[in-house]
Amino acid sequence: MLLAVGAAWAAPPDGVSSVRFDAGSRVFRMDAAGVTYAFGVNDRQELQTLYWGGRLQESDGFVAAKAGHGVASFEAPANATQQEFSGWGEGLYSEPALKVSFADGNRDLVLHYVSHEVERDGVVVTLKDISRDVFVELHYSMDASTGVLGRSAVILNRTKAPVMIEQAAAASWNLPVGSDYRLRYLSGRWAAEWTLNEQKIAPGKTVLESRRGSTGHQNSPWFAIERGDAKDEDTGEVWFGALAWSGSWSISVEQDQLRQVRVTGGFNPFDFGYRLAPGERLTTPVFYGGYSQDGIDGASRLLHRFEVTRILPQAPHPRPRPVLYNSWEATGFAVNEAGQVALAEKAASIGVERFVMDDGWFGQRKNDHAGLGDWYVNKQKFPNGLKPLIDKVHGLGMDFGLWVEPEMVNPDSDLYRKHPEWVLNFPGRPHTELRNQLVLNLARSDVRDYVLGFLDDLLKQNDIAFLKWDYNRNWAEPGWDAAATEDQKKVYVTYVENLYGILRELRARHPKVEIESCSGGGGRVDLGIMLLTDEVWTSDNTDPFDRLTIQDGFSYAYTPGVMMAWVTDSPNWVNQRTTSLEYRFLSSMQGGLGVGANLGTWSPEDFAVAKEMIAAYKEVRETVQHGDLYRLISPEGGSEASATESVSVDKRQAVVFAFLHSSQKGYPFPTVKLRGLDAAGQYRLRPIHGAKAEAAPEVASGASWMSRGLDVVLRGDFQAAGFVLEEASR
Ligand code: DGJ
Question: For the chain, how many structural domains are there in total?
């Protein structure tokens, strides 16, 4: 497809992504950072992928796209072409991007190029069915500093009758033809999120998805595809993508009969149905995609950079996460003013910056059987409201955060007694309760207004800096009985749009309030919710050893800058594993640090250790949260040891965390070779809390730390060490 000499592309200025269209060949070309993406209009008028990979030269041109041809007379021609966005029609057997039913029974949809408009950082290409006035606008934008592409589709019905959309993806990503690809993806469940999986891409299809109404724990809407068998984390081609959607979603990865590899993602087609009346439109989520030649580690660094600088609400310079205290593991539902004040005093004494009161403060909430929906302060627990506690917390120099679970209701609540019709349900069918609660149907405008209203009041009436927004069940019986029968399945889209609308509106009305996305741990983490929330709760599993793999898996898709990690009590409730306070701190310091232990049981020594660790963390948190992450020794696969390194953007600071699971046969800890430093710089080594390294010079060059490495002294079980390298000179 490449020509030595082709269209004369004018070079884009530095730091700007460029989008160009060559009218002669009808080729679109986008370039930014290390990436070039090209597609064209082929001789069948389909939009066809031409290239996605490393940045090409300006002198490199493309010949006009030419539709592929199959090898068997059985195959309809549509299957032989790598289409950017295919309609289901004319015998397409692969995953379509769009499938519709027309009112007259026709279900054939063939999308051809009509027009386009080039914008500053992107292009909008319009496709249309060959005979009916169904239009699709494909939106492309490319981030100048990472080359990450954002793709979405707007489907418009300009016919005179309703059209039922049965399947709608944001985009299809086509890879160069090959049979040597490997797929990485994340799976999990409650208290065991973010398991990294790897498999060969073979003929057939793998579907990553959630049918649960929200993002879910089971899979994360992220993929990475590597070429070849290279296990080297830092070299080799990687294509990756992340879907920005917090409802039911699907990403299918397929290799077809012609060995074309394609990733298609968007709304989950299962039980999907969105009726578009004449003149209406449906906008899909954005599917982001990136490319790196620096292996899976390089791919995740690129994605982290993109999330930090383009996705998070405070992008491009998000405020580092404050060190927080959370009451959940200490008190459960048994919160009250005196108990919280006592915890707050202790938390402040070790350097905590944000005090968060978790579940239990509202309605008749004694346990998880009652109270959700009744967002008034429980007078038995807080006779004078929240103000005395909040004032106390402020007086101690911390800001105040509060737990809410706005989308849920317990049947035992005033709200449910008043509005039983507000929950997702199929009339006359059982209501499946999970954690004794039902899901409010946020797709209803009255429910949306109620949720926005009580949250707005809560924030107006109290000086709250932070909401922990929880969501503790999956959907069952996803009915929206108040809507017309043909519109009831819109619940999958409208619910999430209203959720985003509430978050957007709250942020606009209360710009200083930060929000955490929590869903029974990490059940709602995706780039859609990250656009509107400042951090996420990674997992309810706070066992510091389990956390090493949980956090490692998380980091493939999401930045440590949003990954909250608490130091809790030992033995930990999950595994009954006993670990030292130092180990627990070092494990939690790999993300946004929190403390969730029962401080009432701590010894003076514990307070002294915690104070020192929190002070050390504050010196490195900008690097840990927003720097570049290098996985030096992986904790995956039952590994005996693991180590990570974070390097600040200016390379002046690096932080190393090393963990030993279990000493075996007296072998020393493997030499840790650092990465990403300035080779010529001189770096001074500083241990965190007495960590030891064998024969380590105090100051050495970046080259030395990267080539000779660091011999960490660790013996025993569940041992950990942390080191900081500061650049002494340049
Ligand atoms: C689930 C969360 O993940 C926990 O941290 C805690 O907030 C509980 N919900 C409270 O019910």
Answer: 3
